[in-house]
Amino acid sequence: MIKNVRWFFVVLIISSLLSLSFSKESSVTERLTLGETAPELVFCNEAQPLNLRSADGNYTLLSFWASYDAASRERNATLSHAVESDARVKMISVSFDRYRSVFDAAIRQDKIDATACYLETEGKDSDIFKQYGLKSGFKNYLVDSKGIIVAKNVTADELASYMD
Question: Helices (H), strands (E): how many in the chain?
């Protein structure tokens, strides 16, 4: 009887390990890493990509957010206010809200410069969402003048240190 119980536990442990090895969650990797070129931003309602390179040697801060994600929205607003007086950083704020009315209300409430904000109404189904690997949460990327990712998920305080 005890041999049968041991055998049962051995089979149970082996089958558990095998099922974990085929799990999608265990194979999640970072989509973009530091030093890589940032993918072009082509929005669902635009034909031309947004240029992430800067001839003047400045940085571009890409901030991805949605109004339904409070943390990403707060981070976006904080970063937007931090860079508004810094000529060395151009911010591109990308929202994945489905409705323009929700997007417009969030921009007004957060007092963000609307000229630096873009709406991707395809949300999680968009190419941008997939290219930037946003499945595991909204992120921001600091991109240098050549289009290379130099930092990820920076805070307003950390951003200042990159500019020094």
Answer: 5, 5
